[in-house]
Every structure is written in C-alpha cells, then in structure tokens.
Amino acid sequence: MFRLLLLLFLFPVVGFSQNTAKRMLEHADIAKWKNIESSKISGDGRWVAYVVKPLEGDGELRLYDAQTEKTYPVPRAENLNFSQDSRYLAFIIKPHQDSTMNMRRRKVKKEDLPKDTLGVYDLRTLRLSKYGGVKSYQMPEKWSGWLAYLREPVKRPAKDTSGFVWKKESEENGTRLILLELEEKQERLIGYVKTYQLARDKARIAWYTTGGDPEQKPGVYVFDGETRQTKQVLAQKGNVKQLVFDRPGNQLAFVADVDTTKARIRPFGLYHWQNTADKAKLVLSPGASFLPKDWLPSENGTISFSKDGSKMFFGIAPPPILQDTTLLEEEIVNMEVWSTNDPRIYPMQKVQLDRDRKRSYTCILHTADGKLVQLGSPDVPEIRLSNEGNGNLALGLSNLPYQIQVSWDAEPINDVYLIDVSNGKKEKIATAVHGSPALSPVGKYVYWFNAIDTAWTAWNIAKKELVKLSNNQKVSFADELHDSPSSPNDYGFAGWTTEDDYFMAYDRYDIWLLDPTNQLKATNLTNMRAEKIEMRYIRTDPEERSIEEVKPLLLHFTNETTKDEGYYWYDIHSGKKRPLQQGAFMYSRQVQKAKNADRWIFTRENFQTFPDLVYSSDLQKIKTISQANPQQSEFYWGTVELTEWTALDGQRLQGLLIKPAGFDPKKKYPMITYFYERNSDLLHQHRTPAYNRTVLSFSQLASRGFLVFIPDIPYRIGYPGESAHNAVISGVTALVDKGFVDKDNLGVQGHSWGGYQIAYLVTQTNIFKCAESGAPVVNMVSAYGGIRWESGMSRMFQYEHTQSRIGGTLWEKPLRYLENSPIFFIDKVNTPLLIMHNDKDGAVPWYQGIEFYMALRRLGKPAWMLNYNEEGHGLVKYQNRKDFQLRMLQFFEHYLKGAPKPVWMEKGVPAIEKGVK
C-alpha cells in the first residue's frame, strides 16, 4: 500500500502555478474532512448545538451562544438534546477512538472496554457534569427538571456489608436506572431495570425491573416527578415490552409475559394502567373470547394512544409456526417450493420473513369503557388512523389481490376501505387504486394521486363521493420530464389547510389551492411558471398537521434556468411574496425554527462553500456560526458551471462542467465524464471530499487538474443505451471543440445504471481512453429473469416500466433486449476497463459483472474486476470505500496522466495475498 500511495504523492500535476502555497488534494487528505450532524436549536433560540465529525478520528460537539457569539467545544460528544426550558443540554461522550482501537488490538474483553459517558451542560453557568458508564438516556420532550439514564452493567461484590446477595447486572437481569433531578443534581437509583420510558407532556417515568434490589420488587413502576411518588403498577416478574404513555402521562400500556412455565409459545398479555388506579389491568390475555382462535396479543405490535387518550391501539397476531423439536438435524428437510401461484415470489418471502413473523393486526381498546375492536385483519392488513387517532374512522389498505403483479408492475395498487372504529365494520370505497391513499388531517377525506389519470383525487367521506381535485387542463400535476414506460409521479403537495378546507398541491413550478368540494376553481397561489421558478413550502413546526392560512408561509424557491435558490415569505390572502434569501447557492429545504422564538438555523452551499450552519433572527441578516473545514483553503479548489450543447438528435441539453483550480482555457486538460440520470439542478451543490461508496470525489479530481463533465440524459423509451450515447458523446465532443479538453485523455466513470450505460458506450465508441463501470448490467436477457436479492423482487418490473426503460417483456421486444445488451458487442471494446461488482450485491446480481469480466478476458481486453467480499451494491465499510477511491484514482491517473501503473494493475493480487498484502 505504501508504494501505491507513494506513486500518487510523487506524480506531478501540470498546469498549476508554482508561486502559491496551495497544494493538490491527496488521497490521505480526504480523511481530514468533516461533516455537520445533529444540529439543533434551543427552544428560546439562544443556543445552537451540532456535531462536527471527521471521516477518521473523534468528533466534537460545538455549542454556539447567539447572545455572546461564542462557541464552546465538547470533544467526542454526540446524541444531543436540549431540555424543554432551554436550561440544559445533554449528550453522550464517546471514548477516545484511538484508545479503544488499541485496546481491541490487545484483545481486551468487550466488557472491559471504555464505556460512554453522559454529559449535561448547565447553560446558565456553562458547567459540565459527567456521569460515566451510560448505556442510554432520555430527555423529556415537553417538560423539564428531570433526565433518566440507564447504566452499563457494573461488577460489584456478591454481598454487601449487611450480607445482602446481589444479582449480576446483565442484559437479562437489567442494570441501574438513574432519575436525575437536574436543578438539585439529586439522583434516584433503581436497580436491575431492563426498559424505561418518559411521558411526553407530564413528569412521569415508567420502568420495569427484574427485582433483586432490597427496595425494588420485580414489576412495572410509575414515578411522578411532581409529587416525587412512585407507584408499582405491576407486581410480577416476566418479560415486559413496549412501555408506552399517552401524551399527558395519565395512562400507560405495555405487554408482558409473566408465565413461569416453559411454554414455547409465550403467552403475552396486554396491560393498561390509568392514573386513578393502583394497578395496571390485564385487558387482553391469550384465549380471550375477543381473539380469533389461537391468536395472541402481539409482543411486536406497536402500542400507541390517540391524542385525546380515548383510544389505545395495539396489535394481535396468529400463533407462531414452530419447528418440531423432536426431529434430529438430519431428519429436517430444507427445501423451497417456488410456485407460479405464489402472490410473492419465494425470494421476496425470504427477505420479508422477519416482518411476516412479527406481523400484527391493529386493534383498539376504548379506554373509557374497555371495549375492544379489531380493525386490521389478514385481508386488510394496513391500517391508517385519522385525526391523530381521535377520529371515528380509520383507513384500511390491501394490496393482497395485486401482489403477484409486483414482479412486473412497479406502481402500488390497493383496495381502499373505511373502518368504523366503534365496531370494526369495513366499507370498501375504491378498488385497484394506483396510488397510496391517505387520510386528511381532520379525517374528512381520503386522498391520493391517481397514477392512471395523473390527477389528485379525494373521497368525500360524509357525502360518499369521489372528487377530482385536479384535471390537468391548465397544468400537469405529474412529472413533465417523465421519460420511462410507467405512469409519471406527482410533484408532491404542501398539505391541507385547517379543518381540511383546502388541499395545497404542487405542479412543476407553483403551489395550487384545490377545493375538495369543487365549489371554487383551482387557484394558482404563486404564479411563477412564466419565470421558471419552482416554489415549495417549508414546514418549520415539526408538529404541524395543517397549514394555517392566517400565517405567512415560508417558501423555498429554485430558479430552473440559473439554479439559484432562496426563501420567500408568502401571504396566502394578499398573494404578496417577500424575498428573504436568494443567490447562487443551494439553500436547505429543512429550516429549523426555535420553538418559542423567531430564531432560525439553515445551511447554504455551492461548489466553493461548505454547507456550514447559518443563524438568523429574521431570515434576512445571517451569520455563519460553524466552520467545519477551514483546511479547504490549503488546497487547489475548482469551479463549476452550467454547460449546454445540442445532442445528436437535435435536443438542447444541459450538464455540469467542473473546472480545475487556476483553469486556463489555452491549456488542455484530461477530462472524466460521470453521469446518472439528470444532475444539472445540482449546480450549486457542495462536493465535499469523501471516500464515496461508488463515485470518485469530484473536488479531488478538480484539485488534481481534471475536468469533470456531468451531462443530463433524457431517454427514449426502448433505447436506453442509444439515449446515453446521444447525450454523452455529443456533450463530450462539444466540450472538446472548445479547445481546452485533451481529446486523447478522456475517461468515464459511473455505477449501477451509469455502469450499464458505460458498458454500452464502450461497445459503440473508442473516444474514451479508459472507463470504470460499477455494478453494470451487461446482459439484459439474463438480467430480466433475475432477482434483486436485497428486496427479493423480480427484476422484470424495471425493464418493463422503470429505469431500464425497455417498455415491454422479453418475448414482446426481444430485439430491444439484445440491442441494449453490451455483452453481445464486447468484441468491439477497445477501452481498458475497471469493473467493481461485489458478491453480496442485492440490486444487480454480481454474475452480470462476471459475465462482463469473463467476456473481456476471453477476448484479451485489458480489464480489472474488484470484488469487495460481503459488500453490497455500494460499499459500506469505511476501509473498502477508502481503498476503492484510491484504486480508481490510480487507474485514471495512469491512463489519463501517464502515472506509473500501480502494482495491483501490473501484477494483480493473488488469492494467497488477499487481505495480507
């Protein structure tokens, strides 16, 4: 590896001035780059906390005080939360990474490695308190004064001074839970706790302990933080799961198995506690008459309460299928039956096996009278609630009649039901809906985008009638640039206004107000189509359910022509738009607002500008409060611009051209082309140096003297390969004609869909001196009948309807499958190829890469195939991403700059040296 790195570091890049202190971005330099994670603003808006994390090494939490404009660092801290009253900031401090890795190298036992520490900052005094050996913690969401954390297991003497025998702390027995009163710094210790939960709105904390502490018997407890009183609501030992409060903390639900026998099917019961009661009530037990025969309360079903607490939702399930334990291993037949009548093909069943085992069906407990009602069922498995659970109706969806079509039809298809929550009665309101129906916030309408007629549709529940919200007469609410043989997607929607009065949907540019009663005609609120400016609503309150028309709306805009972005305030009544931010930047669409103050944080970025955090009190005057990567100034850094050209078929196309630092139009530069669908809208995206999963670091290429070309590709259905050729080759030659591109040193790189198109291109042209093709499909004939192993889905749908864009079955259009398959034209390839295809690829079966490699090898073409063992479609392991980036860079610098060939290209890596050298 040292020799490989040395070749890169010593090889010069021409075209840069020798009179500057800046230098090229080397492979090792990328590890210094940091990302900003977990940014949060306190409720009063004074404080902003965020984590700056490098690719290698320890991260750092930074706490910014907007009042003093000072920043306070906390090394190795993450998982941060402000208290509701903005007085405290809690976080987890991780052990030193280097120290932990050195201990692991010395084979130190896992239980003896350093543990996490809980840190609590008092924001009034800036005093930091630390609590070691922490496993997890919870900060209250809507109340203040307390914090709870669970300790890691601690070794202690078997007996204390009084002779009491202690159990061993463990995952099975539980560990110590600490209730920390923040103001007084007082702690309440509860022993052998396995699970705990804080209520949302009120100072209530619940936990389950296995006992073994002199002061704690086994069972479930509820602590009231206001009265300081603790109540034992279940006085039994067992397996307790899903402690769930209602919002005010006045009710608690959980499932518990308290059976002491060794029954293989565990008899979980459902418990419900109300604050007026001393004990939790067993409201549903196995064998209850409410349950279908042999069914059980589900230990895996999600428990929740309606907002008003009148309903508790839970799951029931059929009994699990168990193996006959009397059979010996050699007597068990492991065999699969794949039937053409299976609703889901067998590989899909295997992928979804855990989900199927844990599947449960939604039921309701009406908390006032204890009435139980079943909503979900095997024939209508998916249930969606209305009005935050308060509604009298629920929505039921079933795709069961259409599951077999999933193999070749990518669109969701559902039968739609309304269900009366008082008795479970179902009414089918729509059949074979091509879309994903949902309930409006208050529950007056069921709405969806109908993929067949590309229109928004609503079912008026009170009138029992179907209403077309949009008719596509003025504009289309479906993707205008859609170019695959499927129904186009919608542009999305902003939401419903209060009381479900209006629905706000997007077209390509504007926001429309649609009346579900059809009394008022559709109204264009923003009217920016003529200027080609896209307007989108930003929700700054995470709890917002409906859009209040009386308040100004914060909108994000994008100029389709210049790609500039910014923000507007918009008054829905007057139609006035007040600009706040605008410029040659990409502005974040997630703007965080302080809960109780007009204080905001967001990011803006462009090719030169890292997306540091920006703080503002009015969204006009801004202050950049983070500086994550000041080292960027040490390196050559490129620029990016929008470029246009005429394709071979006469279309006018766009793309991005990244130019190296100190670009001189009189010089000639090597150029690498990368593409994947359309990317020109990302003109202002910052390209942070990184060891990417599949793509070269564009910033590093520019720093090292490369041009990078990223063309948009529009597609003609049935001709995906030819479409790529039409756009890419015309774009490359248009740039070569400008005089600054070295036509003898052109490379191309891409992955997956891009990898396929590169494999196709090199059978049609010799314009590229070298190419990297990642996870390519080279044989559409064999790939068509294959499996996407990660999802278990058939690959047919993507050829007939989606990205592969053939537009028909193999037997309907066999020639198109052949013509678009590079494998049948490999003998035309004269371009050296680097292929990356991994043996656990769940999207493109890696035998496609093998077919590619074997054909090239048989024909004597120069090619190298990289297989990162146990990796999937894109690299996940950090060491593999780092290695792949280095090898790609070496490959391109060898062919396009004349760098010496690295050892792995010259001699390969024999199996005997794998993982060693």
Give structural notes.
One of its GO terms (molecular function) is serine-type endopeptidase activity. This protein has 917 residues and is mainly β. The protein has 3 domains: 33-261 and 268-282, Methylamine Dehydrogenase, Chain H (7 Propeller); 422-624, 8 Propeller (Methanol Dehydrogenase, Chain A), CATH 2.140.10.30; 636-777 and 830-913, Alpha/Beta hydrolase fold, catalytic domain (Rossmann fold). Helices cover 12% and strands 33% of the residues. It has 13 helices and 55 strands. The strands form 12 sheets. Strands 46-47-49-48-50-51-54-55 form an 8-stranded mixed β-sheet, with helices on both faces. α6 packs across α7. The termini are close together.
Which descriptors would you attach to this protein?
mainly beta, Methylamine Dehydrogenase, Chain H, Rossmann fold, 3 domains, 33% strand, disordered N terminus
